[in-house]
Amino acid sequence: MSSEAQKILLKYWGHSAFRPMQEEIINSVLEGNDTLALLPTGGGKSVCFQVPALMKDGLCLVITPLIALMKDQVQHLRQNKIDAAAIFSGMHHSEVELVFNQAVFGRLKFLYISPERIQTEKFQEAVKRMKVNLIAVDESHCISQWGYDFRPPYLLISQLRPFLPKATVLALTATATKIVIDDIQQRLQFRKPNVFQTSYERKNLIYNVIYEPDKFGILLRLIQKSTSGSAIVYVRNRKRTRDISDYLNSKGISSTFYHAGLDSRMRDERQKLWMAGRCKVIVSTNAFGMGIDKPDVRLVIHFDLPDSVEAYFQEAGRAGRDGKESGAYLLVSDQDVGMLEMNFESSFPALKQIQSIYQALGNYYQIPVGTGSDTSHDFDLSLFSKNYEFQSLEVFHALRFLERDGMIQLSDGITSPSRIFVTAKREDLYRIQVEQPALDPLIKLMLRNYPGIMSDFVVVNEKDIARKLDVKPEKVEETLGYLQRLNVLSYAPHKEKPQLVFITERRNMEDLLLTKETYADRKKAALARIQAVIDFVSNSEQCRNIQLLAYFGEKLNTRCGKCDVCINRNRLSLNDLEFETIRNAIQNLLATRSYPIAELMSKIDFYADEKVMEAIRWLLDNRQIQKDENDQLFIPKKSDI
């Protein structure tokens, strides 16, 4: 690793040393190799593209589906005096144009975009004129239909390669199975296979599955037992976040709740409250957690079954970032598996129904076929469903399909404040101030109070402006709209209602990309992920850690000794004098020669077969005995252990 990379890490991130595997990944990128990096949640993926991009001449194009992540990383880069910008759905067209110009003329070091943006004509024209040194693909598992969050727009990324033949590709993700790892490299047209992967094992994290009908009771006991640090409780629906938070507060445990339906200000406040340690527990849907790197999370509790092992593993992995022992608990009741299967069925509306709902959206907003790209509309799901006699839940899941396919985007409430960019030249502003004196106070106030307003969009507050001018906020909004019509400025007012953005132009119903084949494949892959979750919670014979690692293709021979499965086995065997007798008998027999399991069990006929098998399993898990290629048991030499 060059001293330059070390200096950049220290200067911008304040770290004197890289985390495991970061150094190797950065070297691979600097050597111009297409690279797939699998790093655990909190493993520092962003550093792997930000450091080499700063060392190379040109722009780093970052592709991610997470708008919140875009905004967060752009903000941090700018705070460090690094030129960065993001383009996402719902932005004012003038904002988009300004960012494109900055990228084309070399004024940006990082440009963040969503994968849907790639298909737009404006982007395709602009990217040909950009000097791109690196394409960073975050959440790269989304490119594979076998991944747990497949998004078809990711398939468009490979179309960039002919435009940018010299750019290196760095794909990043936290979790991927073997089939997904291969698929990512193929879909992104890697010049040669090149994967860097750390072990998925977290020695300090203890996974537990608890079957308990009284979930509230066990939840309370787990949190009360944890005397230090913070906790996250994950649930499936928004209402339950409030219910559980209220319950914990009533029991004297400081708690708050979080979900995507809260406005951005409230979400930020609650996250900061929890991050600062002023609130012990945050109860949330899976909307919470992206980019969270709180070191002292001692507990992550899943109150409901997750939709995939990958999602569970990532969310559970938010515990114990400081390396101290922490617990991940998955609470299960008898009806949970049935509920999971029912939710799965409802999340796949019939293909014809998805098409009908898409057509109804176009009619609802009176958007002709072939138009409507990048338009934003107030959206009330209940009102829309009632108007067309659809079931609300069916509409919700259909919209999620259309969103993953890159055709629309749903936004819950306020996503950004009002922004203004004065586009007129100073001489034109002076002329307007002279010709229309009524506009003079507002123009002067903007130029005086908002530095940079003539070179970029800046955040403004209409109420503050109204107070300073001693007028009503409605008058300020009206005047800003008038100045926009005069081409003096671009004005992007804030939105208080949920927004639905048409990312692409409206298509004919029969031209939707979602075909019968892709729909069927997606449903099949989702069903396999659901079954994997059911298998995980149902398997009480094998160490939880071993099960999880095996799912991701990693073999672990030694059980953790601390999960619910291991504790139960220890309780049944290790504290039992019978076990010692059986173990001694097994070891005495194997000291003379190897034995098939059946024959060995027949030799120990003074105890029940279940107890003998229990002892054999324990000895195998703890590598005190092993199996050879013929399935014969033997005692390994000390050098083999």
Total DSSP helices: 25
Looking at the overall shape, the CATH architecture of the largest domain is 3-Layer(aba) Sandwich
Number of strands: 22
- Strands side by side in the biggest sheet: 3-4-2-5-6-1-7
**CATH homology group of the largest domain:** P-loop containing nucleotide triphosphate hydrolases
Query: Fraction of residues in helices?
Result: 40-55%
**Could you say how many structural domains there are in total?**
5
* Structural class by SSE content: alpha/beta
Given as residue ranges, the uncertain stretches (5+ residues, pLDDT < 50) are none
Distance between the termini: 35 Å
The major beta sheet can be summarized as: 7 strands, parallel
Backbone CA Rg? 29 Å
* Overall pLDDT confidence: 89
Question: Beta-strand percentage?
Answer: 5-15%
**Fold-level CATH name of the largest domain:** Rossmann fold
Tell me the overall shape: elongated
In CATH, what is the class of the largest domain? Alpha Beta
Description:
The protein is an alpha/beta fold. The protein folds into 5 domains: 3-197, Rossmann fold, CATH 3.40.50.300; 205-334, P-loop containing nucleotide triphosphate hydrolases (Rossmann fold), CATH 3.40.50.300; 342-402 and 502-525, no CATH class; 419-492, Arc Repressor Mutant, subunit A; 576-640, Arc Repressor Mutant, subunit A. The protein contains 25 helices and 22 strands. A 7-stranded parallel β-sheet has the order 3-4-2-5-6-1-7, with helices on both faces. A 6-stranded parallel β-sheet has the order 8-13-12-9-11-10, sandwiched between helices. Strand 3 (84-87), helix 5 (93-104) and strand 4 form a beta-alpha-beta unit. The radius of gyration is 29 Å and the shape is elongated. The mean pLDDT is 89.
